Amino acid sequence: xxxYINVIQASAQSIxxxxxxIYSPPSVGYxxxxxxxxxxxxxxxxxxxxxxDATLLHRVQVARLPIMYTQIALGTSASFAQEDGKLVQRQGxxxxxxxxxxxxxxxxxxxxxxxxxxxxxxxxxxxxNGALKVTLIPQMGGRIWRLQLADxxxxxxxxxxxxxxxxxxxxxxxxxxxxxxxxxxxxxYRVAAKTADSVTMVxxxxxxxxxxxxVSLHGEGSRDISIETTLKNRASSTKTAAIRVHPEFAVADxxxxxxxxxxxxxxxxxxxxxxxxxxxxxxxxxxRGSQMPLGRWSVVDTARNMWITNRFNxxxxxxxxxxxxxxxxxxxxxxxGKPTELKPGESVTLEHSYEVQVxxxxxxx
Length: 365
Known about the structure:
alpha+beta, five-stranded antiparallel beta sheet, 4 helices, 24 strands
């Protein structure tokens, strides 16, 4: 909890002219997506630490309410339970009925009804070939919410808990520009086509681009998943498009994880994610030019004897970002597609895939 307070304070102090008044909205500036994501991760850790003590757990859950309020107000999140192929929004457990002292929006229900939020219940689309199960949420940015092995283990970072999931945090999402959570990550996608092994989703973005994403599982028993995304300029003027891929992979312990990079000539270099000086810290490494792997990199979770290999076409990719967080137990392998000037009607595509290997011992390239 102290670390959460420090995160909020540091963000506010980083803006020299920041002055938060009694009526300042959550959009005032210091509650950035990064701050919210970090706060959610800290509360997840706090709840895990006190889960066996009902009194302390309740205190932590109450302390989380300001962040939940911010997420709702900014349209960044809600709490959901998974029921019969849907995510159903969880109602408040703390008896909160008012969010303002007065006015027409003083009650919680009136305030929630006034917000331009997503549907209260969202439909899940699933693909399952017996080895991998993919759960997508078209209504929340066409994101891959869960990627699970046959035994139920999650490969993507999950936020929340059973019955109170936060599905628009973690997982796999994409953006249409290089900026974090630029258009494309939260829009309502429609399912344009679905087969036994693929789902194709389409959305119109506020920046004038149309995104089409096809997620495919390979043959029965395969642990391979392919993703093909196309951005098409539907505007009447030239637009800059850059597909950014943002997956958060779950690991048992970053101190026992590493990342392999396939180099020219078939050589492999390694990035050790252990950070003895500050095991819970967040760190990152940009890979550009000659530092970029030759179309293949992997996160290796030695604690679970698991490899997740991402293959991509270097001609389609401008740079990579390796980001990992010890406290959050997650590793991001981010692809940045090449920024492309698209005239009306033109499009750009990025194709890549993931292969999961489990318990096979030493995995070769």
